[in-house]
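Please go through the sequence line and token line underneath and see whether the fold suits the sequence. See right below:
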Amino acid sequence: MVSVQVSDAVVAVRARTTSGVPVGCTGCGQLSTWCHSRYARRLSDVTLAGRPLLIDLSVRRLYCENTTCLKVTFAEQVPGLTVRYQRRTPRLQGLVEDVGVVLAGRGGSRMLRILNIRLSRVAVLSQLMRVPLPPLVTPRVLGVDDFALYGDTYGTLLVDATTRLPITLWEGRDAERLGRWLREHPGVEVACRDGSLAYRQGITAGAPDAVQVSDRFHLWQGLSRRVQDIASAHRGCLPAALPAIGDGASARVEEAVESTTADTRAERHARRLFEAVQALTRSGRSHSSVARELGLNRRTVRKYARARTWQEVVRRPPRKFSTLDPYLDYLQQRWDEGEHSAKVLHEELQIKGYLGHYQRVKMAVAPLRQGLPIDEPRERPPSPREAARWITTHPHRRSPHINDRLPRLLDHCPALKTAHDLVRRFAAMLDNRDATSLPEWLDDLANTGLAPLTGLAKALREDRDAVAQGITTPYNSGVNEGRITDVKLQKRIMAGRAGVRLLRHRVVLIAHLRRRYADRPTISPS
């Protein structure tokens, strides 16, 4: 028996289960029709036409006819409508759980409020944490990577590289925790990781028979960083990449590099810091102690200690591009023709489409009044990061701008040319998936005399087997990087306040939720 009552605020449904229908005992499963009494249950369901739907359901309490059963009485359950100790229907409960997985507490509460379902953020999080995690299946190919949890604290994420689904995560990136997890879940055949010593030791201890693969991306990233360190140490060579402007251009570049006069405030500051850092580091002091004494960041001390001259650490920003730059040739032409009024020149430029202020035109023609050329925009030399990117970019993907300037830079700086040749040889190994020449390449890397490359050669030689696997096998940590991006997204959704347990729950469940909805067939309109 069912009756429906509709009001402006709510839709109420009153229903009653049928008497005489046998029901299985919740303790032993034996069917019973012996009714003890009835009681009313009030259930919330998903909204109907935008109104909350309440179900007042009268159900039976029955005696269990099995004398050996521990239960004397039990309440009947309506499949698809009621669940023990639950005041929501399975449909509403599933909606609350899915919204909690996707949007967490505060965002989930707001979304449910839009759907006219009133739940606090605490209730949404409580329902989310009650959702059981999928059963853990030991993967054949495991991806291991770290991620920033908060501040200087890092976490570890494990991913099934075959199904591309996250398995678990925890705080810290120590070898003992990873080794213990691998021992508790035997069966991992391949483990993809970065060059971390902790992960290498953890995999060796927990799964000694597993093939370790050093990720190609991290190998290339490590090499690129060493090239950038070399470019930073040879910052004085970077202006050589600029094209010659005139006969005196080369002399001006050399003069700018070799000049010992500090004219500006920034140059005087750089020179004082350079002399102070060099004096302390020559006495055998560590970078950390020098940083503490001078009140500088350790990276700043390292930059000044590696520089050969103070000019290498002075930033010389070029004149920024101006909306007047496309009209400089016209200004020079009109000046040569005898028009020296900035106001008239400004009016002529406005006719040609210039939207800038008169004052900018006045400042542009000021050098002409003194017999000097117009201050045209000058191209700045590449930064160490840009120079490293030029070197590590595939030759076929370099722009004409880079192809014009990189040869000049390499001809002027032997250290960068050596780094460029080694980078291209390593890129050839990655492209061909051939690690035959890896030992020879490591020897050449160590014999360059460049400290960044020498240190890299030592680290790669200690992990040579995993590096060779990373070059030759198709396994990599690309899946890990994608999942770490997802972890960061979930952290931001929760404003970075999620604990490890909640973060693990959401990261694992949301991946399975996406897979579940992606696998559902779409219904096309007929």
